[in-house]
Amino acid sequence: MSLVQDITMVILTVVAAWGVAGWWRRRRPATFIVAAVAFVVLAREVVLGLGESGGRWWPAPASGPDDGIGLVVATLLLVLVGVVGGRPSSWDGRLDRGADLRGQRRLARIGQVAGLVIVVAAMGVGVLAARAVHTSIRAETIRTNEAIAHQIVARVARATGADDASRRAVLREACDAAAPGPGAQVGYELREDRARRGAPSDDFVGDLIERRADWSGVMMPRDVEQLAAYAYLPVLDGVVWVYTPTSQVRPRLLAATWPWGLALGVIMVLAPWSSALFLRLSRDAESAIRIAATATEEHERRFARLVDALPVIVRAHAPGGACIDVNRAWSTMVGRPEAAAKDDGWLDVVHADDREEVRRVHEAALASGRGFTLEYRLVRATGEVRWVADTGVPLEGPDGMSAGLVCSIVDMTDRHVAALEMAESEDRLRSIVDNMPVLLNAVDEAGRIVFWNRECERVTGYDAASVVGDPDALRRLYPDDAYRRRMVAERDARGDHRDWEWTLTCRDGTERTIAWSNISDRIVIPGWASWSIGVDVTDRKRAERARLRLEADLRQAQKMEAIGTLAAGVAHDVYNALSVVLGYVSLARKHPDDPTAIRSAIDGIEQASQQTAAVARSLSDFSRRGDHERRPVDLVSVVRGSTNMLRRIVPSNVRMTVDLPPDGSIWIDGDGSQIQQVLMNLVINARDAMPDGGALSVSVNGGPDRAALVVSDNGIGMSERVREQAFDPFFTTKPRGKGTGLGMAIVHSIVTDHDGSIDIESAVGRGSTMTVHLPRQPTPPGTPSAPSVASSSEAIVFDGEGGASTPPAITPTPVAPGLVVVIDPSRQVGAIIASTLAARGHTVCRAAGVAEAERSVAASIPVLCILDADEIDGTIALPRLHERWPDTVIIVLTSDLPSLTPFENESTMMVEKPFDLATLESWIDAAFAGPTEEME
Amino acid sequence: MARTRLMLVDDHQLLSQMFADHLESEPDLTVVAIATDAEMAIGLAREHRPDMIVMDIKMPGLLPFDAVQSIQKFLPDVRVMFLSATTLDRDIEQALVVGARGYVTKNEPPEVVLAAIRTVAGDGAFFSEDVRARMIIGGGSVQVSRASSLTAREVEVLRYLARGLAKKAIAATMSVSVKTVETHTQNLMRKLDIHDRVELAPYALRQGFSEA
């Protein structure tokens, strides 16, 4: 067989296998039938072709054109089978989506090619091997036949005998005796035979005889109808041949080549099938890839629609930085078509001032592979500026290299504007909090300071860093433990408060007073458990204290001045009086024996002394510094009590009248000595307004709830201007050296303190009237008052009569003096009681006990007996006294009333201790009064 | 009768001298010593052993009360009378504590002072009215009181009065004489400074002494 035949056979085999594989996958009967047919045909040829030559199938030397047609048809059939059968099917879920489809396909292609190569190789090897075997077997058959032929020729040659007939008989013998192989034939043909037969002399054999040539090979003679292996040898004048027909060789061929054939068959089935499989795989992979690609395409399309629908601008960049895509939102925002964004076009819509930074950030992100967030401005086509927040996310390819950048951009103009406003507002508030001259601090639940503004820092010297969060801070600010504890406790108890002052210690040790206001309960600030604002009132308080001190100093100075004035007057009076006294003394000395002189001297001295005593008393009253607490004060008493003193300071050329309401008291709440001072000052001023004399009146009057003190004069009066400034401190109309100008200021201050007011009525040249209005108080419910400023002065009358005043006492019912026995071991108490009795004119007999008393009075019967039952056992003494003096009234002084009550009767009175002398007096009077009528 | 021997103590020497001159004419009194301060008074008392001391309260140096107490150690029966320019409660208290028989304010005219001296010399007692009004004879001593409070009996009477009971009825209820009730009433009214029976009832109600 020729090479062309072999190649054709290979092709046919492959195609056949393809078809089988196709059937295997697709189960198509048509495919199978065609493939099977082709395969069978091919198989037959493979096997038969080995032993036959020429024939209809092969373009053998003796073959004609019709030998190739079947071949071509078979080829076409198989190709068709292969094409149809080999159509790929889907992998139906067997596609591993995770796998690398392209890799699979590549592998499949490689496999397919490899399969094909293997097939070809196998085929080639098989064919070559088969051919080799075939050839060797053929060769061997031929050699065998040649050997046999040689044997025959040799036998003939050996047969000497000479004639031809004997040689022909040997030839025949030799041919019969030859043992050719199975199926082999031996024959000969001599020229005579051929001539007798009439065979042409130019056919193959004739040619051989003529040329006396030998030939061996395979041929198919016309009359044999099959291929045979021939060996021709010339003998005598003819030729001998040995031939073995192919059909006899076939079994041997089969036996020799069947492993090869089987292997070849298997390979021919498997390899192409697997190649087809690979092809199928690659096709399937291809289709899967295509499906995936389609799905991806579909997915991408869906995705693109989604991205376009987003309200967020999405922008994609290639690794080099060029913009490759934007979504619809971009073009909506900037008012340009999407294409305008491509490459570097996207930068054009960025605000010029921001462009450089935006570009830089994008490039950096692409280079570093790290994302970014950036805020910048875009300029719309309309020129409007919008603030956007751009978040860039770098993409990483499968190989780790940058696959570009995806930016999502959100319009935050509104948010930006709001943020700007909020930042501005925050700055404003922060500036206020930091710079306001008010302390602001806050504490958390644990009491630690969490906020400390700049004013706090400035005032305390502690900066916020050293105070915030420091649990010790409070101790530093308030080092006194007791003070601090009190503050904390009171703060906790108080809750919200305003203007509550505490003193803290600054860093440099100085102290400052802060007025704190805390409304944390009402206004809750998140994050602050309690917050308070404070004002540094240290200076204010200091100023206030200084002011108060100054006021007090002013008052004191004014008082000193008044006293000075008064003292001058007093000294003057005292000197006068003393000179009177001394004068009278010398008079008395001069006329020691003249009773008249003596008497007048004594009278004069007495009078002068009385005057001086009065002056001294008023002076001491005036300078008495009572406490300045508010107390009910009788204005009338005050004025009355000051009268004497006023007369001291008013010169003789000024006529003074004091006009007081006839019905006694006008009460106010205040300080008597201060009112007195007011009166003094007003009178001094009135006096000074009348240097040449005049009339001065002091009066007190009042309505239902008002009281008024009026001082008026007919002096030089005050002009409008003077009147306006009258109460200004240090304002004076007097010449230098006379008066400090404080008098009216202090008057005003005192009157204001007493919730009163002061009016000036004045006309130049006509005099002034000063009216002090004070709120009137009801008469206070009385307790027996201690001697007040007024009451002790009340006794002082201008005409010099002395004598102390007595507080209201029960007027004793006048009784006839009698004998009174006082039984009291205590000398002091006894003496007091005795003197009380003696003052009433009674005769008193004192005794330390009952027996002594009886002895002392002897036969007399006392009218009254006063017994101190604490010192003497009353239970014993009383019965005895009753018995001894049954008609004597007994007053028993006792601390233990119940034990003596049984002894009480009409004439035995019990007085409980403690009792005041007035009570005792009333009992004494009662004792002497005898039975009285009902007093209703 | 023996003359009472007097010691005068006053830093105002002239005053002492004046009293001494006046007392000269008194037959029953004689001035044996004049001291100008409390310290000196102790020394002179020891020397002269007076029966009575007239002492000014306002003197520099040792407190007069301390001096009196020292003197009383060796002269337990000496009678003491104080002169004072003031009637401060604490001065009166202290005077009474040391057993003073007299306390005279310097307001008083000299006759009064002399009369006081005479009274105390005669074993009596003389207190200025200012002082008398504030003296309370208590359980064991004489004290100064700033305000008088009602005794239990007086409160009882007040209650009855507030209820409108007649004096006779009150007397019967309390088992005392009408005079007693009257005296209590007078004292009540004086102490409360209510001089009108009609006012007593509302006062008592206000103060809670009785219920309406």
Characterise this structure.
The complex is a heterodimer of chains A (936) and B (212). By secondary structure, chain A is an alpha+beta fold. Chain A is built from 28 helices and 27 strands. The longest helix of chain A has 64 residues, at 246-309. The radius of gyration of chain A is 78 Å and the shape is rod-shaped. The relative contact order of chain A is 0.04. Mean pLDDT of chain A is 77; it is low at 50-72, 81-95, 783-813 and 932-936. With 212 residues, chain B is α/β, with parallel strands linked by helices. Chain B is built from 10 helices and 8 strands. In chain B, β7 (135-137) and β8 form a beta hairpin. In chain B, α2 packs parallel to α3 (64-74), α7 (152-163) crosses α10 and α8 crosses α9. The longest helix of chain B is centred in the C-terminal third of the chain and has 15 residues, at 178-192. At the A-B interface, α18, α24, β26, β27 and α28 of A face β6, α6, β7 and α9 of B.
Layout of SSEs?
The complex is a heterodimer of chains A (936) and B (212).
Chain A: H1 3-26, H2 29-49, H3 66-85, H4 101-158, H5 164-177, E1 185-190, H6 191-197, H7 204-211, E2 215-219, E3 228-235, E4 238-245, H8 246-309, E5 313-317, E6 323-326, H9 328-334, H10 345-348, H11 352-368, E7 372-379, E8 385-396, E9 402-411, H12 413-435, E10 439-443, E11 449-452, H13 454-460, H14 464-467, H15 473-477, H16 481-494, E12 497-505, E13 511-518, E14 530-536, H17 538-590, H18 595-623, E15 631-634, H19 635-649, E16 654-659, E17 667-670, H20 672-688, E18 694-702, E19 706-713, H21 720-725, H22 743-753, E20 757-763, E21 767-777, H23 789-794, E22 819-823, H24 827-839, E23 843-847, H25 850-857, E24 864-868, H26 874-884, E25 889-894, H27 897-900, E26 908-912, E27 915-916, H28 917-929
Parallel strand pairs in A: 16-18, 22-23, 22-24, 24-25, 25-26
Antiparallel strand pairs in A: 1-4, 2-3, 3-4, 5-6, 5-9, 7-8, 8-9, 10-11, 10-14, 12-13, 13-14, 15-17, 17-21, 18-19, 19-21, 20-21
Helix pairs in contact in A: 1-2, 1-3, 1-8, 2-3, 4-5, 4-8, 17-18, 18-19, 19-20, 20-22
Chain B: E1 4-9, H1 13-24, E2 29-35, H2 38-48, E3 52-56, H3 64-74, E4 79-84, H4 89-97, E5 102-105, H5 110-121, E6 126-127, H6 129-132, E7 135-137, E8 142-144, H7 152-163, H8 167-174, H9 178-192, H10 197-207
Parallel strand pairs in B: 1-2, 1-3, 3-4, 4-5, 5-6
Antiparallel strand pairs in B: 7-8
